[in-house]
User: Fold this.
Amino acid sequence: MSDLIKKLLPAHLKTLKPYESARRLFSGEQQKLWLNANESPFANQYQLDSAHLNRYPDCQPQGVVQGYADYAGVAPKQVLATRGADEGIELLIRTFCSPEQSHILICPPTYGMYAISAESCNIGVKTVPLRSDFSLDIDAIKACKDQVNLIFICAPNNPTGTAVAGEQIASLLEHFADSALVVVDEAYFEFDPASNWAAQLSQYPNLVILRTLSKAFALAGLRCGFTLANPPVIQALLKVIAPYPIPEPVAQIAAQALSEQSITHMQQQLSELQQQKQRLIEALSQWPIELVGDDKANFVLFRTPHKQGLMDYLVSRDIVIRDQSKQLGLENCLRITLGNRPQQDRLLAAMADFFALQEQQA
Ligand SMILES: *Cc1c(COP(=O)(O)O)cnc(C)c1O
Assistant:
């Protein structure tokens, strides 16, 4: 770091580590099979009309907001479109927390961006680890009353793939009714439709739901997500959001993705992925692998004593999965994102070769 940068960079950013994605580690390599970031293996076609690219887009493009409201079964005034759910996370933190004073609460092992966003804004992070069965430690969370402004609950949880019991979320919403927003991150709800809190919005003024087009909708490259909440929450977020967060091409594609026909297509791809999930889980059972957590999302988490060897071997075969072993309680755990059938064939063939080599060496 240069002297100038050292002098200018605030203390809380000096130690901050950026989000570690394989895209940063191995950027630009096209022949690789990416099974690391919970993206969809399907790439769908869209039309672009460039007639209005000379104009700034609407802050909240009406076709996108209405389309998502219809899909989620909520009113347009309960929807905020953002640059991915990640921007929703950051907006909630910037809007409802004060630097050096407020805290968010997270329940690790969980999605990494809650803590990174908070730390980049100099907001404190209280952690209440999941219990050994990956359920919420409700009493420990409730003991943080009046100490936290936002509680992030990832449901289904990434990277454990576990659902969160509805009674647990309801009891938090009630306990924190006058002191904190409970943010239910439903990035994977399409893979577990029971994990859907949208219909409860009008019942709980402190409920916030995060959604995304990056996972089941197969549009991670689009960067489009949604925050669902009651109008007072949405109005507050609109104070902080950039004036033109949704680029015109993004709005056009998102509106097309939310058409009835595209939603039907998405659901077909979803059921294909659910089949591939069963196939992957069955195939993994032939090796010294212990499945960890549950399979409510589009990935499988497992533990193996060969964690590093397997990870390195797959990289040597141009297959990238995700090492989760640094997460709390997930020693020796790897996570595989579901692929389509040929991708999973390629993965399973490589894994078979790896475990055959292990046996030879043993
Ligand atoms: C992928 C993911 C997100 C981020 O979604 P984007 O819309 O791509 O920003 C948010 N939360 C969880 C739990 C995720 O896994």
Q: What stands out?
A: The radius of gyration is 21 Å.
